[in-house]
């Protein structure tokens, strides 16, 4: 059986959530929020970055979706989770999400991951998120992102 490419997993997930045809590949890297904003001609805040954290006591993965202009306060995230969390390693991110850092999408993950959406994302009518590679993105609204990820909206901004 052939391995499904990460961008194809995202495309399938987008179709399943009524957002098919929204993914696009860009000629420039969108690995960072600043690169994505420049490539798309939008504000950095309109880029949703997907940050993966690890709960050391349980080895659980957490996905935090935050505005590109927001820094996540790990202390606030730990308080919400109820135990310490740490930034995940690249190997952990790939194992738990199926994506490399810089291309982690909020949908199309290889396994369910507890997802939190930083409240700042809701400030935008439409934003862009990674679509499975450092050069692919898709657009969505806050309501679409919440519905597609099942994420809880939280305040974890510094």
Automatic annotation (TrEMBL):
Top-level taxon: Bacteria
Residue ranges annotated for the YbaK/aminoacyl-tRNA synthetase-associated domain, each copy included: 28-146
InterPro entries assigned to the protein according to its UniProt record, in alphabetical order: YbaK/aa-tRNA-synt-asso_dom_sf (IPR036754), YbaK/aa-tRNA-synth-assoc-dom (IPR007214)
CDD domains for the chain: ProX_deacylase
Pfam families per record: tRNA_edit
PANTHER family xref list: CYTOPLASMIC PROTEIN
Name under which the protein is recorded: YbaK/EbsC family protein
Origin organism lineage: Bacteria, Bacillati, Actinomycetota, Actinomycetes, Pseudonocardiales
């Amino acid at each position: 059986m052939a391995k499904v490419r990460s961008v194809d997993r995202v495309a399938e997930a987008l179709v399943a959530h009524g957002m098919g045809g929204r993914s696009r590949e860009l000629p420039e890297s969108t690995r960072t929020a600043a690169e994505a904003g420049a490539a798309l001609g939008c504000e950095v805040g309109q880029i949703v970055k997907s940050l993966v954290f690890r709960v050391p006591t349980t080895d659980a993965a957490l996905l935090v979706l935050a505005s590109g202009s927001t820094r996540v306060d790990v202390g606030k995230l730990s308080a919400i989770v109820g135990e310490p969390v740490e930034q995940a390693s690249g190997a952990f991110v790939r194992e738990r999400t199926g994506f490399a850092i810089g291309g982690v999408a909020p949908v199309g993950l290889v396994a369910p991951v507890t997802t939190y959406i930083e409240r700042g994302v809701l400030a935008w009518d439409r934003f862009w998120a990674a679509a499975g590679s450092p050069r692919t993105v898709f657009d969505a609204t806050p309501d679409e992102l919440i519905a597609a990820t099942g994420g809880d909206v939280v305040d974890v901004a510094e």
